[in-house]
Design brief:
With 607 residues, the protein is α/β, with parallel strands linked by helices. It contains 22 helices and 20 strands.
């Protein structure tokens, strides 16, 4: 082994040792030659290495893992188009504020711009969509002393990458790219214990938190599985004597509370606003203070709580009931899934307060106050204030919610041709404290409509609302949250978009993950959601360009990847298939055949 190989190996040892010290435990690798040094060192140092031959799917797999665990996950691939295949997941990570570490291998400088295979300009390839880019040193020295000089540089780069990806330097969480130019030979010297791998690594933590909070969550039986803390990956707030001071140029907490004085309030709980148990309890405390309903988005994690303050049928209420007029909205996190709710409420409340720990955003442009904070920060301030007399719309919302509940209960008699019948049955059967990943388009909307109280963790890629990479992302979350079962609810076009994800079934087996991963495909043979959008038409273009009917046989897919497959067209058969899949474990696909036409008419009495 040459002195250069030894120096490269030792420098990468320092890099991966530092990643471990920062709480990184797993990596996702796509095979390639130029990335050999990174892949081999990841295998030597990290607890789990997952291999996915499809770089596009691998990136979504890592994204799902990071979303579920709250830890940054490294991605490793070779040079050229392989790196570019990460792009869709990088965009989702940016929008959803998910920490990813993009470790791209590259050709050295003398092979750039000369027509070398698998060579393109990877410098700042992702532009402004990553939080940080670093072109790592091209290791060309041959002496031990030169190699020793790289160790601290590589360890420092690892620390900085984690800090920036997690938002610990005051920025938003997201993806970080470190680009590694490697010369041949590519096989690094194997790891041997070094001083800096044992004594000199700096375990970085968020201010005020223990190092143990970054370690891998304890694996528990899913009967008592607790969601890991994912809401503390950034530190944007300065706390002084229990008062949250906004450092982002927004309104202060006291100013916000003064603006609400005496007004009837509606609280909107957006994605993951109640994911941390402390924030979930804080949301309830805030609602009690204001005597206000909590309109809980399915991704808020608040529908896992039973409390009369929680309203789940706001979508149906906005459609049918003519909901009470709120004078003030307090929105935690992003706007929710329901477009009807957004349209109805955003323009009618003269006071609209947007609160988010990272960045309060509002595409409706109706926000009157913006604050960087968490629910627990607001609740802490409320303990020092006295609740004033105010009018309340809580009872009106609760009564409307009950009427909607009674109307939606008719889904039990809706028949075998209705998507909602299967979603309602799934929610009846899904195990407590398991994971439910929802695809976009019709799947998440059906879930929003029919999900009431359900003690499950609900996840989705709602940053950009795309359908790409959905199965891979759900599998990534499954690896982070096992042994809890995972149910993936998707449409057929979403499933077609990510078929390569099922190749990860072998990786699950290799890692001993036999927990149930059940894919429920609402298969209407095309893009039925467009039947509910303004594009709907009887003209020939509508079917050709939007409904896109297909005849894909998912049974053949199951045979190809060696997964269990059941096709059904009745709710009764679905119930049997889902129960059997839970008992069997491993990866299962339940294919539910539904009609493509008539979706608006089937939903009409529920929406």
């Amino acid at each position: 082994m040459s002195e250069l190989n030894g120096a490269i190996g030792a420098s990468l040892d320092a890099f991966f040792c530092q990643l471990r010290a920062c709480g990184v435990r797993e990596a996702v690798v796509s095979p390639g030659s130029r990335s050999t040094p990174l892949a081999m060192k990841a295998l030597e140092h990290l607890e789990y290495v997952w291999v996915d031959v499809d770089e596009r799917g691998a990136a979504f797999f890592a994204l799902g893992m990071a979303k579920a665990s709250g830890r940054p996950v490294p991605l490793i691939c070779t040079s050229g188009t392989a790196v570019a295949n990460w792009y869709p997941a990088v965009l989702e990570a940016e929008a959803a504020r998910i920490p990813l570490l993009l470790l791209s291998a590259d050709r050295p400088a003398h092979l750039q711009n000369v027509g070398a295979p698998q060579t393109t300009n990877q410098v700042e390839m992702f532009g402004s969509h990553v939080r940080l880019f670093r072109n790592m040193p091209e290791m060309t020295g041959t002496s031990a002393s030169e190699g020793e000089g790289w160790h601290s540089d590589f360890a420092a780069a690892a620390r900085e990458a984690v800090e920036v990806a997690c938002g610990w330097q005051g920025e938003l969480p997201g993806a970080v790219q470190l680009n590694f130019p490697f010369n041949e030979p590519l096989k690094p010297a194997p790891f041997s214990p070094l001083r800096h791998c044992e004594e000199g690594e700096i375990a970085i933590t968020r201010s005020g938190e223990s190092e143990s909070s970054l370690s891998r969550p304890e694996r528990r039986s899913y009967e008592r599985c607790e969601a890991p803390n994912t809401s503390d990956t950034t530190c944007l707030l300065a706390m002084t004597d229990g008062v949250c001071k906004d450092e982002g140029g927004g309104d202060g907490v006291e100013n916000v509370l003064d603006a609400l004085e005496g007004l009837p309030v509606v609280i909107l709980a957006g994605e993951n606003s109640g994911a941390d148990p402390r924030d979930a309890e804080a949301l309830l405390e805030i609602a009690r203070f204001f005597n206000a309903p909590i309109l809980a988005d399915p991704l808020s994690q608040m529908r896992a709580h039973t409390d009369p303050l929680i309203v789940t049928h706001y979508d149906a209420i906005c459609t049918h009931e003519g909901e009470p007029e709120p004078a003030a909205i307090i929105r935690f996190g992003p706007w929710g899934v329901s477009k009807r709710m957004v349209t109805s409420l955003s323009r009618r409340a003269p006071v609209h307060i947007a609160i988010d720990p990272h960045e309060p955003l509002d595409y409706t442009h109706t926000t009157t106050h913006a604050l960087r904070a968490r629910p627990r920060d607001i609740a802490a301030v409320l303990t020092n204030r006295t609740s004033s007399e105010r009018s309340s719309v809580l009872e009106q919302w609760r009564e409307a919610d009950q009427r909607a509940h009674e109307r939606l209960a008719a889904v039990a008699q809706a028949g075998d041709d209705f998507e909602g019948s299967y979603v309602a049955k799934m929610l009846e059967l899904i195990p407590d404290n398991s994971t439910l990943w929802a695809g976009n388009s019709m799947a998440i909307r059906a879930l929003d409509t029919f999900m009431e109280y359900s003690p499950v963790r609900v996840l989705a890629n709602r940053g950009l609302n795309g359908i790409d990479g959905t199965t891979s992302s759900a599998l990534g979350a499954h690896t982070a949250l096992a042994p809890a079962p995972t149910t993936l609810l998707v449409g057929d076009l979403t499933l077609l978009h990510d078929l390569n994800a099922f190749a990860l079934t072998e990786e699950l087996r290799r890692h001993g993950n036999t927990a149930p991963f059940i894919v429920i495909c609402l298969n209407n043979g095309g893009g039925a959601i467009f039947d509910m959008l303004p594009q709907r038409s009887t003209e020939p273009y509508f079917e050709r360009l939007f409904l896109t009917p297909h005849s894909a046989d998912f049974g053949g897919l199951a045979q190809m990847f060696g997964i269990d497959y059941t096709c059904t067209s009745t709710v009764s058969d679905f119930e049997s298939a889902y129960s059997a899949a839970l008992a069997r474990g491993g990866v299962s696909l339940i294919d539910i055949f539904l009609p493509l036409a008539g979706v608006p008419e089937r939903y009409e009495r529920f929406w």
